[in-house]
Amino acid sequence: MTDIGIDRDTEGLRDRIAAELERTRARTALLTEAVDDADLVRQHSPLMSPLVWDLAHVGNQEELWLVRDVGGREPLRCDIDDLYDAFKQPRRDRPSLPLLPPPEARAYVATVREKVYDLLDQVTFEGRRLVTDGFAFGMIVQHEQQHDETMLATHQLRSGPAALHAPPPPEPTVRVPAEVVVPAGPFVMGTDTDPWALDNERPAHRVDLPAYVIDAAPVTNGAYRAFIADGGYDDPRWWTEAGWRHRQQAGLSAPMHWRRDGDDWAYLRFGTWARVRDDEPVVHVCFHEAQAYASWAGKRLPTEAEWEKAARWDPATGRSRRYPWGDDDPTSAHANLGQRHLTPAPVGAYPAGASPLGVHQLIGDVWEWTATPFRGYPGFAAFPYREYSEVFFGDDYQVLRGGSFGTDRAACRGTFRNWDYPIRRQIFSGFRCARDAGADEAQR
Fold it and tell me: pTM for this one?
């Protein structure tokens, strides 16, 4: 296994943490230097923060947890703590705050990082759960990468010419079946062993599921276009009561960023219009749209447990893997992650990333809506603070799994849990469907 936290050699762990910090900051710099300072302070959507807020926020969190807590050092800028507290400052209000201007924000995050590198040279990874196996550093890496994905979503909402560029993803190399049967039986969900896993991924626990059938790939644009063409957005039969109410109030008629192009469809991607490609996973749909499509198709959304069993369970050994392909970290052959490409990859582009059962593209491409509201696992314990997960538990948020093309490998694994409001579409969200297995299928 190549996971960073598994390396118990202290110097090796320091080197790996330093590399992750550097790699992550390079991505943050790319996202914030791709536009001018006027663009950094502009709010491109009330759903999102100005990019400059995200930039200073990641530095402030790094100062709070690493410089002050782990290092026990004097605050650098305690006067800005409230400005960059996500719970105190709603996104829509952040442009009106006295935020650090771009040059000052850049200088601040750079100074914090210098302090963190000094601390990394001296810290011992023992004595406190927060520092064991470098957890606090891993938490900060994941936090910054999550904000990098949020900033990428902000770039998608920008008006004007493209500011980001990347090569297209690989073309398909295999034909993917429509569905895969997952046999009945137990599997281990969650983790007790991944040292950088967050509190909502813990503890590991046994879940016993009946046989079910799951789509071998995410739902594609072509399949979703059939739903649109069949009047799916105009027929309340396919929608829940809450979903239909939202569809009417929001005027939904197609995925976000789609528009009619003659008899066809086009989508806007990071400032560039292109024809909708049928074999790519559909992206920028909300939970209600995913649920309506599944109902129209005679299926349903998978539960979170069904998604994870399909992604991790190895029928040959009975154990749960860290990823569909095994325990090693993702490479460019396994999954479309890390902003390497700026679009989901067509179905069949990553055969090396398939699960033992033959389910494809579970990691990367699009976050996948599940039927499960966000709650803690049996035996959940908040760590290191309630505001990371626990305050979001309940029926207001739906779980998404698997990561997107904008998710970094550090913030994505078979146990990683994302959550959002069911109306959200600005995120890189798609879905796959599932259904109960028939009697013959259950015997396979």
Answer: 0.96
